[in-house]
Amino acid sequence: xxxxxxNGADIHFTDQGSGDGVILVHGFAAxxxxxxxxxxxxxxxxxxxxxxxxxxxxxxxxxxxxHQPADYSFALMAGDVLAVVEHLQxxxxxxxxxxLGARVVLELLRTRGDRFLLGVLAGVGDYLVNxxxxxxxxxxxxxxxxxxxxxxxxxxxxxxxxxxxxQGQDLKALAACSRGFGASPRPWTREALAAIKxxxxxxxxxxxxxxxxxxxxxxxxPNAKAKRIPGCGHMDCLTQPMFKAxxxxxxxxxxx
Length: 256
Fold this sequence. Notes:
Layout: E1 2-6, E2 9-16, E3 20-25, H1 32-37, H2 41-47, E4 50-55, H3 74-88, E5 94-98, H4 100-112, E6 119-122, H5 139-145, H6 155-167, H7 171-183, H8 190-194, E7 200-205, H9 214-219, E8 224-229, H10 241-252
Parallel strand pairs: 3-4, 3-5, 5-6, 6-7, 7-8
Antiparallel strand pairs: 1-2, 2-4
């Protein structure tokens, strides 16, 4: 991993392979290694002659940990990723983001779409814009602060806590991260999505209850398509061959 100091935050990233650039942005409570290294994405993309940069978001992996919600927002995380791209002087790379990472990618495309080529929004769907219900924004933070995972009643929050524990993540930083997102308004209105001109793939598993269906979300963009992958949910989708194939076909320009 290489470290870049960005506005007081040390951001870690890997830079491997050669060819056209692709930037990988992981999900909440994960890391570049957990989402992209262990599941084979980095090796798959480098074998496809791509230069692959995988970033540890602030509060995650080997990047800087903060314990104040004000240090976390989609704008700050997008700024960190953009700073890495500018530092490496990568011209118009593609972007792939999973779950939280897809939201960071979306913020990059919304604010600096001219700086990137293709965008892949993985593990998200219509619930990004049209949530099924208003969840308590404190659930995720309280789960990270609980004395034990056994004390967490919400099943989804408990799974994220166990996932974070399994990697030795900083639970206080993740609690602050969760609160930071909850305190900042989501900038992805239908009007904002309609202004994004990049070609986009929205891809989610058929059993992903956290994301919702990808087709409605893709419909909000002027130049996007959706792919629903059968037989996978949220936590396991990045390891599924059909999921990987859908993204690789999109990056290669293979028609449906």
